[in-house]
């Protein structure tokens, strides 16, 4: 028989329920097999109590067992086609058991190299098992106190699950934002390339227009110089002509006198 993984919660000895785990009905699976009776060489058990006190003690023990099974369900596993069940122990804990539980918790934390700070699944698992064992010990002495601790345990687990869900959703949100940022970055880079290409085209057009403007100004300056030269020559020609006419006019007027 190979028992399941060791836990800090104290369990009774495993019990063989069935040798054939196929085609089992829920009612048949719920049946509890009695463990093998102790050998004759062991100590003789004390005789059961008689009367009303014995009935009350048996009823209280049965009720405690039911509460323990509801808080900490029995462990089940199969081996070679055989179904084994291991229920949580209903033996009251002593001071020595609590000290041993603390030492075992420290030993397993060191053995499994749990982190002392921060988020650590190993440390969380071991402390959860230790809390379950404390709930078991308290429930045996006071069922109401054990049920109240059960509410505290469930509230803690629900809060941790809510934080875990919130963390996962925030991580997913961050990943979506990162992907959107990467996609937006690619779009912006593409737009930057397009704008740079458009800028180069515009700069080329500006250079071409500047060259045309310089050519036009050069041709206009040359044409202006030609026109000014022509205008100067025409003025000089007209001045010479005017001078000649004055000279001829003076030559005609002078003999008449």
UniProtKB/TrEMBL annotation:
The keyword Coiled coil applies. Keywords: Coiled coil, Dynein, Motor protein. GO terms for molecular function: dynein heavy chain binding. Residues 13-57 are annotated as: Disordered. Residues 178-248 form a coiled coil. InterPro entries: Axonemal_dynein_light_chain. Residues 35-48 have a biased composition (Pro residues). GO terms for cellular component: axoneme; ciliary base; dynein complex. The keyword Metal-binding does not apply. Transmembrane segments: none annotated. Belongs to the inner dynein arm light chain family. PANTHER family: AXONEMAL DYNEIN LIGHT INTERMEDIATE POLYPEPTIDE 1, AXONEMAL INNER ARM DYNEIN LIGHT CHAIN 28. This is 33 kDa inner dynein arm light chain, axonemal. It comes from Biomphalaria glabrata (Bloodfluke planorb).
């Amino acid at each position: 028989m190979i028992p399941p993984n060791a836990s800090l919660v104290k369990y009774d000895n495993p019990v063989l329920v069935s040798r054939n785990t196929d085609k089992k009905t829920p009612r048949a699976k719920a049946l509890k097999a009695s463990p093998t009776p102790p050998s004759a060489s062991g100590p003789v058990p004390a005789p059961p109590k008689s009367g009303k006190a014995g009935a009350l003690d048996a009823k209280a023990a049965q009720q405690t067992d039911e509460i323990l099974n509801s808080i900490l369900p029995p462990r089940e596993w199969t081996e070679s086609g055989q179904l084994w069940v291991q229920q949580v122990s209903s033996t009251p804990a002593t001071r020595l058991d609590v000290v041993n539980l603390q030492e075992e918790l420290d030993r397993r934390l060191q053995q499994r190299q749990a982190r002392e700070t921060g988020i650590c699944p190993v440390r969380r698992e071991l402390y959860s098992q230790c809390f379950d064992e404390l709930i078991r010990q308290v429930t045996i002495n006071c069922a109401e106190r054990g049920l109240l601790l059960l509410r505290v345990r469930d509230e803690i687990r629900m809060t941790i699950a809510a934080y875990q869900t919130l963390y996962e959703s925030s991580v997913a949100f961050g990943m979506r934002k990162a992907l959107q940022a990467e996609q937006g970055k690619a779009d912006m880079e593409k737009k930057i390339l397009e704008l740079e290409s458009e800028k180069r085209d515009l700069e080329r057009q500006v250079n071409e227009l500047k060259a045309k403007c310089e050519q036009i100004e050069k041709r206009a300056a040359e044409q202006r110089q030609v026109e000014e030269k022509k205008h100067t020559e025409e003025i000089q020609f007209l001045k010479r002509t005017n001078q000649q006419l004055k000279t001829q006019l003076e030559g005609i007027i002078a003999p008449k006198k």
